[in-house]
Amino acid sequence: MLISKLSQAQFSGHSLSIHPSIFMPFENLNRKSQRLATIALLAVMSLAGPVAHAFDVAQFQAEYNSRVQPFLKNNCYHCHNDRVAKAGFRVDNLSTNFLDGRMADHWKEAMDMMNLGEMPPEDEIQPEIENLAVVVDWINTGLRQAELQAKNAGGAIPVRRMNREEYANTVRDLFSLDEEVLAPIMEKLPADGSAEGFDRLGVALFFDKIQMDRTIDVATAVAEKAVVDMAKEANTEAPDPSTLKFVAAEEMDPPNEKVTARFSGHTVDNQIPAGPPSYVIRENGVELVSAPSSSHSGREWAKLQNVRVQDTITEDGYYTIRIRAEDAGGERPEPHQFRIEYGAAHYAFEQIIELDPAGVTELTVFLRAGPPDVRKSMRFSWNQQPDVIVTEPKYASAARDMFEAIKAVGKAKKTKKSASEIAAAEREMEAKKDVLRQWTGPATIWNPEIDLAKVPRLLFKGFEIEGPVREEWPPKFHQRFFFAGDERQDAEYAREMIERFLPFAYRRPVSAKEVNAVTEVAVNALEEGLGFYPAMRRALVRVLISPKFLFLAEPSGHTEDRRRLNDFELATRLSYFLWSSMPDEPLFSLAAAGQLSQPEVLDAQILRMLNDPKAKAFVRNFAGQWLDVRNFGSIEPAEEYKDYDEALEEAGQREPYQFFAEILSRNLPITNFIDSDFVMVNERLAQHYGIKGVQGPEFRKVAIGPDVPRGGIFGMAGLMTHLSDGTRTLPIRRATWVKTKLFDDPPGNPPPNAGEIQPNTAGENLTVRERLEKHRNEPTCASCHATLDPYGLALENYDVIGAWRERANGENFRGNNRPHLDVAGTLPNGASYQNLDEFKAALLQPEMREKFARAFSKQLLTYALGRPVGYTDHATLDKLVADLEANNFAIHPLITSIVMSELFLTK
Question: For residue 34, which of 71, 68, 3 has the smallest C-alpha distance?
Answer without folding.
Answer: 3
